[in-house]
Write a structure and sequence with these properties.
Structural class of chain A: mainly alpha
Radius of gyration of chain A: 20 Å
Helix content of chain A: over 70%
Number of helices of chain A: 10
Oligomer: homodimer
Largest sheet of chain A: none
Strand content of chain A: under 5%
Shape of chain A: elongated
Number of strands of chain A: 0
DNA sequence: ATACGATTCAAACGTTCGTTTCCTACATAC
DNA sequence: GTATGTAGGAAACGAACGTTTGAATCGTAT
């Protein structure tokens, strides 16, 4: 339990988590067998159950490892924004950026498994398993609450209900963008080169989200008339 | 092979497809076993392999049954728009509507399994399996090409590359919205009542997408400066 | 009545799944 | 030295998987 023993102590766990990110991203949770997973990680078949307890517990540990620091970072970025604004309302674009860039920067993490995780995460928002969706929702809850309040303050003229929906759409756009880093082919004709240019992607995505969030409100009559 | 024999002939197939939509949506492809599927459908375990050949072939048939008519309907709606416009460029909002409303109207299909299918479809755009994503892409290809051209004509000032990305974002927003009809809780505080009001949802989603699509372009300098 | 193709059925196929067991290896503490 | 607790490894567990088989059943045409 001494300090100089810590690294080898956790090495197996880390190898398992890294392999899990890669394989769960490639083949899904149910599509990845423990045998495939442990042999990719270069550990014994029993290692997952020894270190994590079960496959489900491994999945939970996998998301906690990345998501908790990510959301802490997001909240810190928002805190910094608000400190600098000194009480003045924040620009919606700045709030969006502080949320989005945390995810996008991880896409460029080539050597670390960040990119694998991000794609996996984007897809898991709509995972079939209620249990997994609940886990993700729970891990996101603190940051989400914080950002909802911030957007509410920045857009005081917008009805709360409308805001909730627009945040939902924004969140969905981000999730899909993260998950579909190679589904771009669906909308054929995309150049390969800038697919992973996270900086350019952040600009494109941000301006889309800002426009969507600030788009003109429709009054009830408009809605009824269109129906 | 006579006409009066057709209904019972296809009843088992239909029962299987309906049950598959429900269970694949609830538990995913790999999470749904043939035993669970066939017992839910009220048919024999061997029926799937007899009528479809394999589980994979069933998945393909499932998507073809709904997606082909949907895309035909979409293209027809676009044709009608262009006929009525008599050569004048179409309003982007009208194009968006003709794509989106086909999906959203199916959400309200309670008794038919339309809602199940739509949620399943929205999630499958980012399915782990390359094979399945390729299938979806192939089934969408004709309609997608058609809509890309229509948007290109409606937005001649927009660089093709930018347009491609915005269509990608729009498609993602729609996909997530369809898939996450109960993940709305992530952005907590949503009223239950209007969750499935497809008409209201269409208005909200359309105005978000229109705003995002038409949002201000950023010139290269803006992008660089922000980086 | 008989023959025949299409469909349904119970049972079994071999494989793979997540998990567990039990043994060994190796530290550190006494 | 011996004891002790942590980690790795080989083998096996029972259960569940997708698929196949061969016989039974049905409706229809001869």
């Amino acid at each position: 339990m001494d300090l100089h023993a810590i690294k080898p102590q956790h090495e197996t766990r880390t190898r398992i988590l890294d392999a899990a990110e890669e394989l769960f991203m490639k083949h899904g949770f149910e599509g990845t067998s423990m045998r495939h997973l442990t042999s990719t990680a270069g550990v014994n078949l029993a290692a997952v159950n020894y270190h994590f307890g079960s496959k489900d517990a491994l999945i939970e540990a996998l998301f906690r490892r990345r998501l908790d620091p990510m959301n802490i970072e997001r909240i810190a970025a928002l805190d910094k924004l608000e400190r600098e604004a000194e009480g003045k309302p924040l620009a919606p674009e700045a709030i969006i950026r502080s949320f989005v860039s945390t995810s996008l920067r991880m896409i460029e993490d080539e050597q670390g498994g960040g990119r694998n995780f991000i794609r996996l995460l984007g897809r898991t928002y709509t995972d079939p398993s209620k249990h997994i969706r609940a886990l993700i929702g729970q891990l996101y809850a603190p940051a989400m609450e914080r950002f909802k309040v911030a957007f509410g303050r920045a857009l005081q003229h917008m009805p709360r209900e409308e805001l909730t929906w627009r945040l939902h759409f924004m969140f969905g756009t981000l999730a899909y963008t993260l998950a579909a880093t190679d589904t771009v082919q669906l909308i054929a004709g995309c150049k390969q080169e800038d697919r992973y240019d996270a900086c350019l992607l952040e600009e494109r995505l941000t301006s889309f989200l800002v426009a969507g969030l600030l788009g003109p409100l429709r009054c009830r009559e408009d809605v009824r008339k269109a129906a």
